[in-house]
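Researcher: Let's run the pair from yesterday's discussion. Sequence first, then tokens, for each.
Model: Starting with the first of the pair.
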Amino acid sequence: MPAPKPKTAKKTVSNESKLAKLGLRTDMDLVLHLPMRYEDETKVVSIREACLHGGMASQVEGVVTKCEVGFKPRRQLLVTLADETGNLLLRFMNFYGSQVKQLAEGTRVRARGELKHAFFGAEMVHPGYKVVNEGAPLPTVLTPVYPSGEGLSQPILRRAISDAMKRIDWQDTLPPALIEDMRLSDFEPAVRLLHYPPQEVDESALSDRSHPAWVRMKFDELLAQQLSLKRAQRARRSKGAAALPVTGALSDAFLATLPFKLTGAQARVLGEIRADLRHPYPMQRLLQGDVGSGKTVVAALAATQAIDSGFQAALMAPTEILADQHFRKIAAWMEPLGVTVAWLTGSLKKKDKLAAQALIESGQAQLVIGTHALIQDAVQFCKLGLVIVDEQHRFGVGQRLTLRNKGDAEAVPHQLMMSATPIPRTLAMTYYADLEVSVIDELPPGRSPIVTRSIDQNRRDEVIERVYAAALEGRQIYWVCPLIEESEALQLQTATETHAMLAEALPDLQVGLVHGRMKAAEKQEVMDGFSSGRIHVLVATTVIEVGVDVPNASLMVIEHAERFGLSQLHQLRGRVGRGSAASACLLLYQGPLGGVARQRLMTMRETTDGFEIARKDLEIRGPGEFLGARQSGQAMLRFADLETDQWLVDQARDVAHDLLHATSADSAATVEAHLARWLGGREEFLKV
């Protein structure tokens, strides 16, 4: 008889690691993990009274008179609760076997939830409940409900937070004079009230976060952020960077060979960048400009200043298509002037990659253009003076840090970040307090306005006719397929099917297809075919979102436009209107539209102004998602809201300035204590 197999212990994930996944690693992290809402378990009403207020959340207490597992229309646990005024059904769609025993007949239960009048009478679906003894006291404070994660129940979180509150040092990080001057609540009472609000608290002020306890938390959070950013700016200015003072032969020749004159906005922005590059501390500038405003030529001119001054420049873009567009355009400008431009992406053959790395390390490559491949360990620069990051919000903070750290140990390279997603002023002031911001707020002359229409997809045949008519007039067309976040394979299938459908519907036209799964060479072949005019219609996934520049393309069709974010729709639309022909963008949507999707499409129809679109986008999405905060792994602002708390942002900025410029040891200690409490060593991520 074979020996029995030894039992393997089940892997259990500790509560500590589950808490760590939420970013709760220290006692102070737990204490500052504040409730997102509250439940009032301080009152019990009779079942009859709860029935009179159907549709509202209420708490009842009674004895279980029946507990059974039903199977129609699906398996569910049905528990009948009774008090002296009536009966109530508690319905659980998902339940454990232990709950059947726990809720046995005769058990006294307190249940809380929204009461509904169903076919068989009053019921609560999935209520919260507790088994209690008769006469058990009610809580005297509201019950907090915390943001949670997988495997973390509310009781576990409540216990962990309660234990942490017994261990931490409650000393206020702000001086009493400042607290009094700003009429702020003291730290400990504010935190305790938010975790355990008394019955008499103003619940509406708690829920809309206008309560003085919330104001203190928001101010502290904003102050920590402003202190960190301003300190990062000061630290940056104290660091050495190679001054790049020369705008010499290359810069002059480059400007002289351009077939167009810089716009006033481009010239102004270039002046700001050139002045920064002359400083012996690192530039950290954000260059904003709407799609088509001419950021690339300004970046190339910044690179000429680095090269004229004897240094290398590097430009990193988030996608190979965008990096390739930059390479082709900038190399065509630079190489005739004797500049060696290296090209480095992940898809290069090993031999080509090694050759590019050798050019970079030796310093022969004066300008390096590529993707994330630039930040790999194998890439060593000889004398890196300027780093340019395009579409900077598409990179994680860690990636931007790695590229910045490729410079000399003694001298940090200057950094120019570019974004075609304009950042509203309030956001720039809050999140980019240590950045200088330059804005190209003028489009080059000769750009045609883009007319935008939203069209129900039932009218697809009319759209195809319009595509055919545009092609007959010698124009080219983009047809963009929907973004399907859940599945790249599904997105690819949609693009392939759309390509087949259009090729069949338009047999006289050349219909091309480009998507993210294609090899770089195949992708490039299709893009070249479109750029040269051989391909009339280009079916694409969102790989063409940025960087593609085909002046003859004047019609953009975006399929399932309701699935795209505002910023992405605006970026896609920016691929047309680059020539002199009247251009149009057709947003095909599938009804019925939700409120947010309707708002987005209406904004797209009403304006082509990137800053107005960015403002609307911020309203719809909130700052964290707008800035790509999730890529950094850091929460942006957990408590403060930029729309409603701008007055607090201004106060926090002023206080941060005063604390950092005060010469007393007390001010320095206040800054350290406050940052330790609120950021706990996570400051590095705010520096890029």
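Model: Moving on to the second of the pair.
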Amino acid sequence: MSVPGELERARQLAFADDHAGAQSLLLSLMPQIVALDRDDLALEVFAQLGEVYLVRSAYDGVAECVRRIRDCVSVYVQIAADPSSKDAALVTLPPDVVDEMVIRYTRRADHLEIGLAAAAGDHEAAAAGLADLIAESDAGVAPSVVEEALELVMRARITCAVALADDDDHVGAEPLWDAVLTVLDEGEQSARSDHLWVLVGIGYGRFCVETGRLQEAEPHLRRAGARAERRGWELASARVLLERSAAAWSRSDAVETERLITLAYPVIARHAIAHDVSRCWLYFGLVRMAAGALEAADECWQHAQRHWEELGRPLHVHRILLQRSWIDIFRGRYTQARNTIAQARDMLDSSPRSTWLQYARLDDLLGSAWRAEALADMGFDGAGDPDEGWRELEERLAGARGIVDAAPGSDGYERAMPKFERAADLKVPAALAVDSVRYLLGDATARLRWATAVSAPVLAGAFAVAWEGGNVPLVAELIEYRCARGTFSAEPNPSMVVDWEVTATAPTPATVDVATPAFAAGAAAGASSALTRLGPLPALQMDPSGEAVLARYRELAQERYGRVITSGEPIWATWP
């Protein structure tokens, strides 16, 4: 077969995720290409190799391919600037081929650099590169170059959108997905178009699952799976199953989650895609934890943590550490649980992509650890014993009735009260901060998703710790806060509303993982009698002789997370 034919075969191998085969074939072509003295074919080899290395997370290889492409292209640019140079006489390719080659492979190198920046979490650099690629996409000396440029733009958008969502920035990813879906051609049936559609179906399907849009995710994932199966692309089919298992877990369908992840894992493991392997282990652990098999769950999460540490992904390591801390809590190893949560905080601190919401949920979990220890002091029948074996622990949890037996004034009761207070100082400000986002959501569906899946569990934990700690005034203030909810304003500020409507997400996949960017809330946009948008209430006062409701906790929420819980309007009295 000719070299161009072999290059096309290598492309088909890459579409089928046979990366080793594609790499071996491409490298084997280089001696023949050198003998033919065809720089255009050599550039195609480096461009395809760079794409293979990018998928395999071999970033040094990608950088080397980019360097070789740019070095070669720069020689031809210099020759074009000085046609009388001695190097110009060595050029054997026709001028129109040279012009097309320079444009095409400059863009291919740009595309690879966008992928490198996105993979490294440098989303600003990736966005700048994408903007340049879009600006240059209409320039070309041949229709094929223009068509390829448009495809490169689409693939770059997909790469950037997936990377943003991986760093919990679904707000930044949504316009990229909108742009991709606008120009996606569902009718074309070539291998190239099917591969592009599969990338979109998997990436956008995952985006929909992580943002709570399960009904929208399902058709994209199923169509991507159908195209992958028709082509015999087993890894793509397995990745579709992985995203469908995530959707099943979001629906609380543990049986379907396990069925799908069991089908997907062997293929994903065989292809050794480390990030997806880790996600498989995460879901295996969640299913086992739901079934009460705590030892098996912890083993699964150990595997996931190891892979994410090897990949250098601090946000994912932080999530799995939080998940593993629950095992320590169940085992009654509260100090160890808090140490694990502290490690997760270190991971957040080391990530430039951490957000206030991640810290709020981390504090909420730390409060849960203190609450669990306080309940254990009060004789909670489900509390674990650090010296128990796994089987004894699992049996204890299965048979627990959720009762405590420490009477007020007993030693256990006295030991528990300071721990409940410490838990409340962590959980209540976090709950207020997270729940305050509801006030900024103009869309009712988005508001319902946020309230149900994100703020309700955290707020319920705040109520629980106040009640269990016997803090009746705090319970009353939380009730007053919850009943008052918010006000309405006729002057919504789009900059305050639209971003949070994008991220009204269910926690995916665990209780500590939600997709949101950093965002500082403000007061309602303005006062009016028209009812068009929820907004924060002014501070409330229940007792004429007391301070405002939840005043200290609201101050902690602003201090820790930058969230303004109430508007700046005069205080409202809640008595007649």
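Researcher: Give me one sentence on the second I can quote.
Model: The mean pLDDT is 86.
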